[in-house]
Write a structure and sequence with these properties.
alpha/beta, Transcription Regulator spoIIAA
Length: 120
Amino acid sequence: MPLTIRRHHLWGDPVLELSGRTIAGDTFKLSKCMEDLQDGAFSRVIIDLSRLKNMDSQMIGTLVFLKKSLANSAKDLLLVAPPGFIRDLLVCTRLDRVFTLLNSMKEIPSIPDSSPIHPN
């Protein structure tokens, strides 16, 4: 199953749900989604990894690049529910110290004075 990205919003922040398998070139899909969001008024991007089957080195590099790009704009990148092997990969590479890793969408702190989920 190829990589698919579903977009919606939670408290005004974009949520990208990644599912399937990543292969060479799939990072373009994620980068394109982020470009589409570039001018948005949000404080963080939430990436739900719970349905992702694998993560290759290109995807890891893209996530690091996106984290740095968002930080330069005073925004954050949250990674939610990485499956065990992806979490292990992030821990082994010490990227768990770079990213905010959450176990589920329920752990995402709300933002005061914001609205709940708005599907696109």
